[in-house]
Structures are given as C-alpha cells and as structure tokens.
Amino acid sequence: MTTFGWYPVFLKEMLLFRRKLLRIGYLFSAMVAPFIYLIAFGFGLGRNVSINGTDYLSFLIPGLVAMSSMNNSYTWVCNSLNMSRLYFKTFQIFVQAPIKPASIMMGEVLAGMVKGLFASSLIIMVGFLSVDAFTLSPLFVAALLLNCFLFANLGVIIGMRTKSHEDTATYSNFFIMPMAFFGGTFFPVDRLPLIIKSAVYVLPLTHTSILIRKTVFDGEAMLSLALLILCATAFFIYGSKLIRQYSE
Q1: How far apart are CA 169 and CA 57, in angstroms?
Q2: DSSP string computed for 16-76
Q3: How many secondary structure helices (H) and strands (E) does the chain include?
Q4: Dihedral of CA 54/60/63/65: which sign?
Q5: Domain-wise residue ranges, the chain
Q6: In angstroms, how far is the first alpha carbon of the chain from the final one?
Q7: Distance (Å, rounded) from C-alpha 88 to C-alpha 83?
Q8: What is the spatial distance between Cα 129 and Cα 94, in angstroms, rounded to a whole number?
Q9: pTM, whole model, 2 decimals?
Q10: Residue of 193, 194, 198, 227 lying closest to 210 (CA atoms)
Q11: If you count Cβ atoms within 10 Å of the first and of the last residue's Cβ in the chain, which end, N or C, has fewer?
Q12: Residue 121 exposed, middle or buried by CB count within 10 Å (0-12, 13-18, 19+)
C-alpha cells in the first residue's frame, strides 16, 4: 500500500473520467474552446500572417497545445478535488486511509496529467492534419508532460485552499486566464512592452510556450526547462504539505 498508495486515488479519478468520456457533451466541451481559437485566429485572422519566418498556424498550434494542457490539467483536478473535499466528502476517506500525503498528491496529479494529455491530443491531431511541417520533437513532448504535471500540481493546491466552489473561478480569472492570453500562446512574448514582458516571464506557461516550440536545446530552452522543473517541484512539495496538514 505504501509503494502503490497513489494508485487507488488515480484509479478513482480514471473511473470517473471514463464515465464522463461516454457523454458526447463532455467530449465536445473539452474541444470547443481551443477549436474556436484555432478557427478564429489560425484559419481566420492568421491566414496571411507570418511569425518568425513561419506561417501563423504553425506558430499557433503548439501554443494551443500548451494552453489546452494547462487549462485541462489544472481545471479538472482543481474542481474535482474541491467538490470531493467540500461537498461529497470523499477526499476525507483518502486522508484517513493508510496512504501517504505524497501518494495522494501523486494520484491526483497523474489523473490530471491524463486529462490534460487527452485534451492536448485533440489539438495535436489537428496539427498533423492542417500543418505540413508539424512534428513532435523530444522538447515538445517534454514540455507538454512537464506542463501537465506542473498545472495538475497547481490544481491540487488551489483545490485544497479554496473554501467554496466559486472560489476556484476567482483563481482562474486572476491567474489562469491572463496566462492563457499573455503566456506566448497567440503571439511572441518579446512583442509585449518591457514592463509587461518582465511580469509575463515569471509565468510558467510562458516558458512552456518557449520550450514547446524549440527544435534545438539551446540556452533559452535550458533556462525554461529548469524554471519549469523548479516550479513543478515546489508546487508538488507545497501541495503534499497542504494534504498532510488537512484537518477538515
């Protein structure tokens, strides 16, 4: 139980996820937002736009993958944990069981990663169908996995700290949504004013957007990778601490 203590937590979330996947409305809800952005900005406004010597659609799709993995890894974990802790009272069962806090954390995070990767795979399929030069480089895969891991950790943190389901929307409005638009998803960060640019470079999604578009592991990629690993590790440690100190 100690070694695989994360598995019951992970399995519970996957069983719920499988049940939701059987609903057509749930599947389309995961697709609608990124596909609206793709059609409006990629096929609409960006048809005659080029960035850094490539067409805009080739620039946009990796950014949408980063944004979609962030939104889904974070939102699904945050909402699920918040509801199970405050309303269904199922989270208390895990706390009382002989499972280490880090194992509970890992189970929730792995479930969030699966959900984030699922949503991202829909955008990746569109990339293969619509962009001739679209490929999955090792840096692309590493950035995607790390981004899902990082924001699933953040989802646990917010899910543990919020006092009501409405509070989760507040965190999303002030942190997740601005990061989705200013974190390098739709345009390069270096085009922002200097003051805003300095703040944006603090955001994790910015470094995911940088890393996911890299084909060569240069100094910038190394810095972004290091910052993402640092943030993910800090979030995991803090989330495990919140679970260990949980007393509701």
Answers
A1: 30
A2: HHHHHHTSHHHHHHHHHHHHHHIIIIIIIGGGG-EETTEEHHHHHHHHHHHHHHHHHHHHH
A3: 11, 2
A4: negative
A5: 6-244
A6: 24
A7: 6
A8: 43
A9: 0.91
A10: 227
A11: C
A12: middle
Nearest partner of 206 among 233, 227, 222, judged by Cα: 227
Residue 203 φ/ψ, nearest 5 degrees:
-75, 135
Task: State the maximum Cα–Cα separation within the chain, in Å, rounded to a whole number.
Answer: 59
* CA quadruple 100, 115, 78, 23: dihedral sign: negative
Whole-angstrom Cα distance, residue 118 to residue 113? 8
What pLDDT tens digit does each residue of the chain (248 aa) get? Answer: 456 789 989 998 999 888 887 776 666 766 777 778 777 777 766 666 778 777 888 888 999 999 999 999 999 899 989 988 988 888 888 888 888 999 999 999 999 999 999 989 988 988 888 887 788 999 999 999 999 999 999 999 999 999 888 888 888 988 999 999 899 998 888 888 888 888 899 999 999 999 999 988 999 999 999 999 999 999 999 999 999 999 86
The tokens 């949980």 sit on which residue?
246
- Tell me the two tokens of residue 247: 């007393």
E strands present in 34-105: 50-51, 54-55
For the chain, what percentages of helix, strand and coil (3-state, to nearest 5) are there?
A: 80, 0, 20
Give strand pairing partners of 55: 50
Residue type, 233: T
Number of CB atoms found within 10 A of residue 149's CB: 23
